[in-house]
Predict the structure.
Amino acid sequence: MNGKFNNDNWRVVTEQGRPNYNLSFNIGNQIPLFKKKDSPSTLGYLFGLRYSTETEYDGASTLARTGEPYEDPIPGDEYGRKGTQKISTESAGWNAIGNLSWKIDRNNSITLMVMPNVLGQNNARYLEFLNPGLGAETFVSEDQFYEQRKLLVYQLGTRHLIPALNLKVDLDVSYSDGDRDVLDLKTVQYILPPPGQPITDVDGALGQPSRIYRFMDESILDTRLGFELPLGGDERKNHKLKFGGGYLNNTRRNVQTYFNIIGAPGPTQWTDAERFEMNEEGRFVSRYTTFGTFKDNDIGINQVMFGYLLGDVAILPKLRLVAGARLEHTDLLTDILRYWEDGVAADDPIRGTVGDQTIPGGSNPEQKPAEPGILDQWDLLPSVNLIYKLKDDRDVPMNLRLSYFRSLARPSFREFSVVQLFDYILSAPVYGNPDLRMTSIDNFDVRVEKFFRNGNNASLSGFHKRFRDHIELLYTTAGGYTWRNADLSTVTGVELEGRIGIFRWLEWRGNVTWMESESELTSVFSAEPTKYTTPMYGQAPYIVNSMLTYHADSLGLELSVSYNVQGPKLAISNSEVNPKGIRAYEMPRHLIDVTLGKTFGDHWGVRFKARNLLNSPLRRSYLFESGYDVDFDKYRFGTEYSLSVSYTIR
């Protein structure tokens, strides 16, 4: 066992961070193949390669977990856990692209793209925290998380025109195959020695040291076939009929294994290799023991078939109608991998339960029936759009748009599977929910847009969205997290966006969106249903995006300054025990980025970027009656500066 696991790196270490860098190479061209005046043929190609590294570090991150009521007069004086942490992430990866585009003739073209991506990531965290439920001492948690991701994407697209019917035909096929593997997730927790005393004085841990290994592979096949047929011979009306369909197959397998160490309670014993070797008595002083079972492994299969029919008709010279419907069939399944492979029925008593033991981070086990998640349903999704020309001018039009359409949101495999996963950022187990339903969304929009001769434009939109069974995240009674459906959710808002050319060399682009949202939920605790309302999960009350750009073409100079911010949005609902209590919100980040680019001659270019000039933190906070007074967690990774040099072959 000692040969399989590295027992020398249980504890985190401090080292000098390396600078971020990015290297890329791209080459492309378009080559004429046959010189035919009436039927030109060209071959375009693009090949590129990129390698990059990135380091993020915060030496003064904070976190807290509290169950105090919303109206608590002194928020933060009572808590379940509170601490400060040093946290870092080191990433390195490469990606490439190969693209071939063959324009066979005026009516036919084929495009093929291949794009591999590889990313490796190391995460480390040193947390000192207080937990009154465990004692008055200061505790330490040292965690390490190694992850590797691979993704290979293939895409094929063809465009055709059948002149005899004036029919356009588009075929798109994409296939991706990816792996996301947790190569080692280590957690050790112990009591912090008093000041001046070494770690060797610690002879006990809060729990057994643990390791998690997770191997996840996922494939997606997405095929779409579309047709566009003009109707009638009046080009001014330009009637169209669009129809087609497609098929999606998404399969994911997740295999994970948990290990605990027994017989090595203290920090100085975790790295003692001899403890993991057979002694003279034929025994192992310390050894690894499996913690979980085959029920920690699951499979997810999602198959979607759809067809659509859409008409684009000019009802009046100034009024256009675009209307149609989309029919979808969803066949979504998640199940424990072995039960799926053996064909065990959903109601077979052999399935038993999962969650008999909680993975590290949970307070108590949370047993649930080991049942599959199954969705098998048809949905009709109508769509109606009206476009009225308030000013019928090709160069400076002004339009009024009214639209309604229905859309869907399916639960992810992680949300829908009964299997539990340990979330590194939340530092807690996350339980899936196979009882989740798909979300149905009715979208209503009205929009007025105006275009000007100098290229400026402006638009004002109003929208209302109605969600049935919106999926939201909440904190469970067992100390983990899970998802459930809200009864009804709504979002109503307005958006103003546009472009203004202040001078010939200076322009502004931006948009401002204001929204009000609400979710109605029902929580069942002690067999008593409780209805309550919250802001909608994940929905910001306002969004501001703005960019000012300066162009000096004669100097080959470009300067842009952007500002972006979103209002506080619900990130985690409070516990099932107290559904009307406080909740954690993702707080606004005021992001200012600057980009300066300069070209030299026909080939050389230099670009300087500064991201997050204000060093705005990633922050989630509990909302009390007195305000956002306790941080759920907060990370500040600093301002990022980058300088790039490029050489272009023309």
